[in-house]
Amino acid sequence: MATRGAAFQHAVPTAAGAHAPAATGVWSWITTVDHKRIGILYGISAFVFFLIGGIEALIIRLQLATPGAHVVSAETFNALFTMHGTTMVFLAVMPFNAAFMNYMLPLMIGARDVAFPRLNALSFWIFLIGGLFVNASFLVGTPPDGGWFGYTSLTLRQFSPGPAVDFWVISLQVLGASSVIAAVNFIVTILNMRPPGMTLMRMPVFVWMSLVVQFLIVLAFPAVTVGLIFLTFDRFFGTRFYDVLAGGDLHLWQHLFWIFGHPEVYILVLPALGIVSEVLPVFARKPLFGAPVVIYSGVLIGFFGFGVWSHHMFAVGMGPVADAAFSVGTMLIAIPTGVKIFNWLATLWGGTLRPTVALHFAVGLIALFTLGGLSGIMHASPPIDLQQTDTYFVVAHFHYVLIGGALFGLFSGAYYWWPKITGRFLSEGLGRLHFWLLFVAFNLTFFPQHYLGAIGMPRRIYTYQTGMGWDGWNMVSTIGAFGIGLAVFVFLVNAARSLRGPRTAPNDPWDARTLEWRTSSPPPPYDFETIPPVYGRDTFWREKYGDRRGRKPVPLPPAPDPHGTHLPAPSTWPIVMGLGIGLGAVGALTSLALLIVGALILVLGAFSFALEHHRNPMHEHQVGSIGLDHRKLGIWTFLASECMFFGSLIATYMAYRGKSVVGPYPHEILNLPLTTVSTFDLLMSSLLMVLALDAITRGDLAKTRLWLAGTALFGLIFLGFQVYEFASFVHEGLTLQQNLFGSTFFVLTGFHGGHVTIGVAWLLTLWIMALRGRLDRRDAVKVEIAGLYWHFVDIVWIVIFTLIYLVP
Amino acid sequence: MSQPRPQAAHGRPTNQTGQTGHGDPAGHASVTMYLQIAVILGIITALEFGSIYIRQLTPILVPLLLVMSAAKFSLVVLFFMHLRYDSRVLSVIFTGSLLIATVVVLALVTLPGDFLLFSR
Amino acid sequence: MEKAAAIVSCVTRPAPGRPPVSVPLAVAMLAGGCAWDGPMSTLTGRSDLARSTLYLYGIVTWATVIIGSVVIGLLAWILFRYRDRPGAPLPRQIAGHSLLEISWTILPALILLVIAIPTMQVIFRTQAPPKPGALEIQVLGKQWWWEFRYPSLELVTANELHVPVGRTVSLRLEGPDVIHSFWVPQLGGKRDVVPGRVNRITFTPDTPGDYPGQCAEYCGTSHANMAMRVIVDRPADFEKWVATQKATPGEPAGAAAEGKGVFTKSACVGCHTIKGVSAGALGPDLTHFGSRQTLAAGMFPNTVENVTAWIRMPTVMKPGAKMPAVPMTEAEAKALATYLVSLK
Predict the structure, then answer these.
(1) N or C terminus: fewer CB in 10 A for chain B?
(2) DSSP-based three-state secondary structure for C137
(3) Helices marked H in B2-87 — which ranges?
């Protein structure tokens, strides 16, 4: 490690002096905004949820070990597999990924933190609240039992009365919010926090895969959010979205769910593939073979991931054309996936393979993920899929992908990065025991399930009769499952022993290639003493060994560091907002008053959050490595997500056009002249908005105040039109519950109106700040991002106006 | 999945901060231009409203309305949201997402056979 | 370890082994004499639909087993060949090789073509509209039992579907409550029963036999207990079965007559149809209840004892069962059961 640079010597006392860098105690963890601490919090919470989900799996396996067993009741079994799936997907693997991304992304790209440290804390607390909330359903005796995929109409109030499914619906919304917030944050971090020289193609593959995953989250979650909104409204307010008798279509939920659900598979797996792409080169002591191809194939997998969702629906009766199209799309995904595997093999080829535990897990992933991928090719053929879907063959397939792929990759990462995170080593001996136990037990559990599926054992059955030929292998599978439990226990012992041992890990114990190994183990709160310069891919390796011809880079002066070593101050508002959401969620199931209290805490928390660092000079300059302000890049990424949100709402309206079985129908009550006027009003508000931005950029504060107020006023006028329209529709008999038109119309325009309301509140806040002299030229970017949001709401209305009001 | 274009490779580290120089949040459009665009937006809205009542336009009404809507959409995005003057990264993120959203919407609307777009 | 378990399972399996249909799949699974022809095996096709799937299955299994063996074999060889040896020099730092990478992009694409083309053929062949002359049967999936209606024969039955061998059958799948999935593996792939939609399965059974099936889409509490069986009869047997089913059952005698009295006086008539006795619609048609082999959608043999227990405590027998326990004495229940079982 280089000696402490002069920049650092100066930076610490001046910039970071106000915030003690290594605060301890519970409170410091609650208010922390340090990406490393948040990463650790994610990791520990995920592990606890992982253990809960694992115990659920063991009970499931006990019940299925023998035919006709009575370990648990049918109801309990159904709840267990629902919660096992929900937990492992949303509360274990996703936050494990988030843990590594939080801890490692900034280190790997040579940054001091994520772009929005407080938003990062907010994501974590919302995630934790959502996870605790859905598990609290066990405590009140009504765990969700509609399956992790929650197919309607089974999950409607009619067939699932009681709060069980409510717990699931609400917590999924909460977890989705957490994921999208985190995704925007990571995208801005990766694009905008890179040090000089770190071009996109020089980023480590794990960073690339994380970037792809975050875009998948941003674009995939809104679809399920919309589906869940419909389900929530159907359950709580009696809307008709999934009401077959009112003309609703049950395929709608499945489409919305799998538009999210398929990219979700890549959200779970791609980070692990990224980890393996880091681990293999280090322990083969060779660069990743064809790194650009590995990166592009990851991007392609993500991109294709949006075009194949309906392969989860081959049995629902979409017709031969859709089946054929989605079949071909699905097969195409095999190509970039295969490329990755061949590139990994070529990375190992000719290397010097140091058999560490991390390499064991990485190699285990290659083998098991290959098997999972190959059974996936079978399902890509719809006729075969019709025999395999909803059988144990599919259970085997996706466990090969999600344990063999995701979990093996995560364990590989855990052994690889443990010394960096803790400063200590995990025992290689116990680690090998862990690996071999897991590898054997995993195959013992899941390989026979291929056979069970092939001879006809369906999924999600709590019992089965003897005489089907399923008995023996189910017992084997159960024995294997307990072996997996034992393997995880070995890991726990290994971790506990390590944490009680001395800190012996040097900075770079593996002779690694990427930047995180350039700083101390564990890294200081400010990550790097000086921002490391980047010479190329595997820049740290080049510093040590030189390039292919052995030429070492000429040492450069420390890269300029626009942010100094300023460390973000701890903040209480993230957890306050999280608690507001938690109270609101509890209130949704118990009392309206509590719901309102929760919402108020959330709103007040949000205001305090937003204004906390107004006028803090450290927060003024947020222009990053692509020359954009973090906040601006962030809002655009958020708007990308909103495209999918409103897209799904509009698609539903379009799909349900003319499907209402009773009136009133659109042509009977839509008031075109009135809406044309309100549309004009909203368009003109956008004009005032750009004028406000123009004024504040020029420093003309009087005009700024005028145009801000004008924009807000025009927004309020639009809302007034909408209130009048809604009231007159209700008067004419069109309510949320009346027919499909009412449900789709009010929910679509209502959510648009909600966005306008938030926009008005935002603008009025800025206006009041301007009136009180707390807004000037330096805050132009704050007006700009409010404006971008406002214009987006405007363009959504342009689309709504055409598709709903104008098109006959 | 849309990814921003890789930047030009740097042989040696350079300070990229402020390189692309979009610090000016108002972009390059002038107030006059904003006013012109607002007028155009108003006119298109009036045309949209009017075209509904012109019987001769019925056969091409739907495509016509879609084109007018797309024009308004683009004007707001390009000028009011000043994407035209802003970083390419933002364009890639937004248009890429919009593209995926559009494809998904079209698929959703047309996939169930009897759901054909504008069938009724 | 797995081998030992294989033996365990083979000891417990009911039917004697038959040569596996899909040889490579058998190889890919565990060697040894495991049965590939269980009652719900997907690998023993007994209709044109199931056989066309098996044809594809064969192609895809060969392809995947070969690819899998090559990859895993290569991986194993690399791990052995390039294991770390003491004093090994730093390996050459090779960053990539374009030609190699292009070739292993194109090769999988070619293999996929081999799978995709027959897949497309089978999709369009198996989902073609049924030929005229097919026997149309309406299948209603309900929580948690199956109703089968033969519009052309004016027959209604539950949980046991009779079809004649060699004649094309076209199932119209409909449902009133939640999504179910009709699946009889030996006769072909599954198809969901989606409320508000009409789905179809068309197949021509080619071997007489008794084929168990089960709901394959999670549908609530007793999803596991929503079995059915398809009995493929020889044409003459089918005609005979149709004739019996169309007949109105005769007047019962003895305990059964007493049971009929219990039936007509209780709430049973509100939900169940017995031709000439009652016309309920919510529960299964019981006109020829005694002719069915099982009770409660494949859960129990259809005996007087089981039916008695079922009448007295349906939700104990079948979790979540929608049938209420109609209050009656043990003796009444037994008489009723005797009557029902007598309805051949």
Answers:
(1) C
(2) strand
(3) 31-51, 61-75
Distance CA A223, CA A229 (A): 10
Gyration radius (Cα) of chain C, Å = 27
- Of A222, A225, A353, the closest CA to residue A279 belongs to A353
d(C-alpha A33, C-alpha A102), whole Å: 11
| Active-site annotation holds for A312 | yes
DSSP state of B29: -
Q: State the greatest distance between any 2 C-alpha atoms of chain C, in Å, as a whole number.
A: 95
Which residues of C are less than 8 Å from A375 in CB distance?
64
Amino acid identity, position A356: T
Helix (H, G, I), strand (E, B) or coil at C138: strand
Q: CB contact, 8 Å: A370 with chain C?
A: yes
Tokens of A155: 């999950």
| Among C residues 110-149, those touching chain A with beta carbons less than 8 Å apart | 112, 115-116, 119-120, 122-124, 126-127, 143
Distance from CA of C55 to the nearest CA of A (A): 10
pLDDT tens, residue by residue, A752-766: 999 999 999 999 999
- pTM of model > 0.80: yes
Q: Which of residues 196-255 of A touch B (CB under 8 A)?
A: 196-197, 199-202, 211-212, 215-216, 218-219, 223, 249, 251, 255
Closest CA to A54 of A460, A482, A440: A482
Neighbours of B41 (CB within 10 A): 24
For residue A727, give every residue at least 6 positions away whose Cβ sits within 8 Å of its Cβ, in sequence order, or none.
none
- Quote the CA–CA distance of C35 and C18 in Å, as a whole number: 7
**Mean pLDDT (whole number) for A272-281:** 97
Retrieve residue A449's tokens: 């399930």
Spatial separation of the C-alpha atoms in residues A246 and A365, rounded to whole Å: 48
CB contact under 8 A, B77 and A654: no
CA dist C281 and A655 (Å) reads 34
CA A379 to chain centre: 26
Helix (H, G, I), strand (E, B) or coil at C193: strand
Flag if B111 and A255 touch (Cβ within 8 Å). yes
Structure-block tokens of residue B69: 């809507």
pLDDT tens, residue by residue, A214-253: 999 999 999 999 999 999 999 999 999 999 999 999 999 9
Chains contacting C (3+ CB pairs below 8 angstroms)? A
Is A337 a residue of the active site?
A: yes
CA atoms of A660 and B87, how far apart (whole Å): 45
What's the rounded Cα separation, in Å, for the pair A725 and A730? Answer: 9
Q: How many helices (H) and strands (E) does chain A have?
A: 26, 0
Q: How far apart are CA B15 and CA A195, in angstroms?
A: 8
Reported residue count of chain B is 120
A593 Rama class: left (phi>0) / alpha (psi -120 to 50) / beta? alpha
Question: CB atoms < 10 A from the CB of A337, how many?
Answer: 24
HEC readout, A171-189: HHHHHHHHHHHHHHHHHHH
**Interface check A338 vs C, CB under 8 A:** yes
Residue C52: cis peptide before it, omega within 30 degrees of 0: no
Number of continuous H segments (helices) and E segments (strands) in chain B = 3, 0
Question: Are the C-beta atoms of C187 and C49 separated by less than 8 Å?
Answer: yes
Q: How far apart are CA A31 and CA C78, in angstroms?
A: 49
Whether A791 is catalytic is no
- Give backbone dihedrals phi and psi of A562, rounded to 5 degrees, phi first: -60, -25
Residue C108: list chain A partners with CB under 8 A.
Answer: 334-335, 338-339
Interchain contact, B100 vs A680, CB within 8 Å: no
- Those of residues 301-320 in C touching chain A at CB distance below 8 A are 319-320
CA neighbor of C215 nearest in space, from C290, C141, C112: C141
